[in-house]
Amino acid sequence: MNAEFITVTGVVQGVGFRPFIYGLAKRSDVYGWVRNTSAGVEIHAEGTAAALEAFARDVREEAPPRAYVATLTRAAAPYEGRDEFVIVESAADPDAYQLVSPDIATCGDCRRELLDPADRRHEYPFTNCTNCGPRFTIIEGLPYDRERTTMRHFPLCPACRREYEDPSDRRFHAEPNACPVCGPRVRLVRRVNGTAVELAAGTTDDPAAPIRAAAELLRDGEVLAVKGLGGFHLACDATDGAVVRKLKQRKRRPDKPLAVMFGDVDELRRHCRVDPEEADLLTSPEHPIVLLDWREVRTDGTIGAEVGSAEADVPPVDAGVAVGQRYLGAMLPYTPLHVLLLRAAGRPLVMTSGNLAEEPIVKGWEEADRLAHIADAYLLHDREIAARYDDSVALVRRGRPRLVRRSRGYAPFPVPLPRELPQVLACGAELKNTFCVTRDAYAFLSQHIGDLENLETLEHYETSIALYERMFRLEPEVVAYDSHPEYLATKHALTLPREEKVAVQHHHAHLAARLVENGREDQVIGVCMDGLGYGADGVLWGGEVLVGDLLGYERVAHLEELPLPGGALAIERPARTAAGWVYALLGDDGLARAARLLRGRAGGREPFLSDEELTAVVRQVQTGENAPLTTSCGRLFDAVAALAGVRGSITYEGQAAIELEMMSRSGAEPYPFAIEEEVATAPAAVVRLAPLVAAVLDDVEAGREPGYVGSRLHTTVAALTLELCRRVRAANGLAVAALTGGVFQNRLLSDLCEDALEADGFEVLGSGLVPANDGGVALGQAAVAGYTVLRRRGLLD
Ligand SMILES: [Zn+2]
Ligand SMILES: [Zn+2]
């Protein structure tokens, strides 16, 4: 007989790991004990050499579905002659840390119990087990035990305690375990003249009564604030155009697409095309919002038939949910409360995050007052939310998921780093902010925080950083930040009392994030097609080809510098960018042509630009006053969208470019462009845009549809990406291209670029679980800062 001491780290708590070990030991003729520690799980195992070998292998290979084994180490231990296998008391170590499980969507077993009239949890909206339920959103401290979660307010009843203490039960040490007798409850409340009036309250006998009453209000066309896992949703009947419009007006987001929750995949298939990989993602433990083909947008911008096969008895989702969009953000119920609400409503529901334009998702009841002018009533519960957590947003490309927003179900699961780094806090970017902290070879990229533009978001940001530092027992020695002096995240970084600070150029961070996600440290070509990022020369970059690794980069090519007339105003008003660029590139003749198009004199539509605004744009371009220069590819899409007649101003980030994408198709003839080698200032190739812009004017004047122009623009950007990458390969032999930056959220463009590069022999690093947009920047900052400090300390060759 032999004995071994086995240590396991990873996500091994809150996921049914000890009962799994217990069961495995019994099956494998292994004796000894298992316990949780602050760092993971420890096992003392005794048995024959063969039994121990098989046991160690199966710990890895048969681990429960939500567990993740990062390391498993075995060491010889003294043989003690044990004759049983037991679970022993947890051991706490104040310096150790462990991975924390994200929240997990309701599992099949819990769902069956929820809908089984004979089960004691029938219609209980907080049913969960070790395979599913809240985790990250209820954790207040570590180790992960009930008394350090917001479930500490709900003492277990005898029946729940028996489950909790029985190693053979699915709820053994399920920390959020609850039932209608002892657990949280829902209530439905309406605010009348400033006071809360209870319309329905859950009881032990009928825990779901408020949910049925809420469904009634939803069917009557009311807007409800629904408290969920990580915050409030604003919900309404997705098939009722009047209430959808009302919700959008009240949210002050007239055009931004809303997410819709469907009862099940079959209901969803009647509205959208759902591929097998998309169905897998929708029903995965993460249950993200998935962007699915919904309606056909024709190249002239008009909407054709719906993609699904709507049946007569199912009212269709109202088109106002996602105006001008080919894709619908769809998700399936991921908590028991959602399952019950969707069943009671009997129709798809809009479920959009409970926030005002630019503010973070609303978390607690005190804050719900901020929704008073949006919601007619509130469906509440008394389980506190420890951490805000938005829905994640994903799409499937080439059979694999790509995240657009990384939050619920994914964070705070770490991204593995290619090597151990010092502890870094990376403060992230301004829009779609996330931050990132590192420990050992893990990068903990935070959940989506939001746009750092107001006090509420900044508070959310600071408390979330504090939570991660507490959760992972971190004291970062290094601070990484974007070089943009006006970002709130940068200002925050500069106030921190740490000695080592590293500024990381925005697009270098984008490139580094893509490298880290792919586990690479080597030098690659980084194609960064982005909105705006502060460049090393103070110009706003965004159409860049870099050659770089995790330590540094060289800028080898970029789009030409053009003015943004009015600065931030040009972002809200793409017509200004269009007029300014045409004037800068083609002079007075071009300006006269653009003016005819943008002032609507060529067609019959509303003018995109007034005479006064056009005069101001011309003056700004001439003097350079309030007209910062940019090389942004995002702004190129804006300008072409405005010239093509898509829209002159926007109400949400990227709107003009997104609408142009919806109308565009592959297979178009590229526009002409010119590449010049600029040697005077820096040895970088510059893409000249005058030929492209002139050809766009020709097309629009010839009466070409916006989708035709858009299709040609997409092909052009793919063609110039390929051409620039070829030049780099010819010059220094590099044949790996990382595609990154917010513009690559554009599916058509990333498909065209990836296809063209791969057909030409390049290896392409596309986006995956780390967003291509600014939500991924913090990861890249953390890596660059960590490697930079390692080199400063002489720890890197
Ligand atoms: Zn479950
Ligand atoms: Zn109970």
Describe the model.
By secondary structure, the protein is an alpha/beta fold. Helix content is 32%, strand content 23%. It contains 22 helices and 32 strands. A hairpin with a 2-residue loop joins strand 17 and strand 18. One zinc ion (ZN) is lined by residues 156-157, 159-160, 178-179, 181-183.
Break the fold down into its secondary structure elements and pairings.
Layout: E1 2-11, H1 17-28, E2 31-37, E3 40-47, H2 49-61, E4 68-76, E5 85-87, H3 108-114, H4 158-165, E6 186-192, E7 195-201, H5 209-219, E8 224-227, E9 232-237, H6 241-251, E10 260-261, H7 265-269, H8 276-282, E11 289-293, E12 295-297, E13 303-306, E14 327-331, H9 336-345, E15 349-353, H10 365-368, E16 377-381, E17 393-397, E18 400-405, E19 415-421, E20 424-426, E21 436-445, H11 455-471, E22 478-482, H12 488-495, E23 500-504, H13 506-517, E24 524-534, E25 540-548, E26 553-559, E27 562-563, H14 568-572, H15 574-598, H16 611-623, E28 629-630, H17 633-644, H18 655-663, E29 674-678, E30 684-688, H19 690-701, H20 706-732, E31 736-740, H21 747-759, E32 763-765, H22 777-792
Parallel strand pairs: 2-5, 8-16, 10-14, 11-17, 20-22, 22-23, 24-31, 26-30, 31-32
Antiparallel strand pairs: 1-3, 1-4, 2-3, 6-7, 6-16, 8-9, 9-15, 10-15, 11-14, 12-13, 17-18, 19-21, 20-21, 24-25, 25-26, 27-28, 29-30
One zinc ion (ZN) binds next to α4.
